[in-house]
Each structure stands twice: as structure tokens, then as C-alpha cells.
Amino acid sequence: MRFSPILVSLAVSTFVQSQSLQVGVPVTGGIATYYNQYGQRGRCGNIFSDNALIAAVATTRFSNSLCGQHLRVTNTATGKFVTVTIQDSCASCSANSLDLSDGAFNALANLAEQASGKIPSKTRRKLKI
Fold it and tell me: Transmembrane stretches, by residue range (predicted)?
């Protein structure tokens, strides 16, 4: 996997007790990275192209009940946002961090951000769509 740091402010609209994500409770701070799937199954058991709008949450927050849940990720510098589906866990992410697929990262990033690999962002968990 290829990782690139992206600055994020995670405002996840749900945070389950302990480390999980629950709807309605904001979580802020953290780093988002982007990654390639390389045809591998994510922790939720599915294979997606790198253009799919998916995300991996920190292993410490992951539970199978999050599979298929949606996060709205906003680039706070530009106001662009994208809705991603949780499909994997991220072992290298801190508790408030996540990985975005290339497709999700590129949907949010302008050319300068793509070159730097950094996007200031916030995330809010949505109800399952």
C-alpha cells in the first residue's frame, strides 16, 4: 500500500462506546492517508477498484457493524466533499485517523493538494444509505 499524509479533522457523526464510530458524536483531529487496494479484499470482505469511494477506519475503532456505513468527508480548504463507504480497517492509523481510496482522495484534492498528499478535512458519519 502507498500512504500519503492528509491533514484531517474528523467530525464523525457517531461514536460507539470505547473506540467505535457512532452517529452524532463528533471526533476531531487526526491524519487521513490514501491507499491503493491492489485487488485485495478489505476487512469487510469486498474487493474494490482504486477509483471506488471507500475508506478504512483505524483498527482501534473498527467493528464489522461499520462495514457499509457512510462517512461524509469534507476538504475544509475548498468545501468539496465526498461520501465514502467504510470497507476496511487501517492498522497504521491512529484512533482519529482514516485511509481514503485514491478515488476519494482525488475527488477532494485540488492539484496542489494532490502533489503534496495533504488535505485539511473533516468527516461526519452518516446513517447507512
Answer: none
